[in-house]
Amino acid sequence: MTKNRLTVKKAAKLMGASEQFVRLGLQQGIFPWGYAVKTSTQYTYFISTAKFAEFIGISIEEVSDS
User: pTM here?
Assistant: First the structure.
């Protein structure tokens, strides 16, 4: 994870959801804090740390510390 980018695994943990739930939500464009890009055979995911933290109501520091 970089400062501006959150992993699917960490986002799922902070949400109390499965990684698959997060992946599918990103693929379907449901979440306003990230997106999925499909290459020929797989997806790449981007989750904005700042937008994710704001959406779930915690500080960026709390995201970084967990």
Answer: 0.89
The residues spanned by each domain of the chain are 8-65
Residue 60 CA to residue 26 CA, distance in Å, equals 20
The phi and psi torsions of 34 (rounded to 5 degrees) equal -170, 180
Residue-wise DSSP of 20-41: HHHHHHHHTT--TTEEEEE-SS
Q: Tens of pLDDT along 1-45? A: 567 899 999 999 999 999 999 999 999 999 999 999 999 999 999
- d(Cα 1, Cα 49) in Å, to the nearest integer? 9
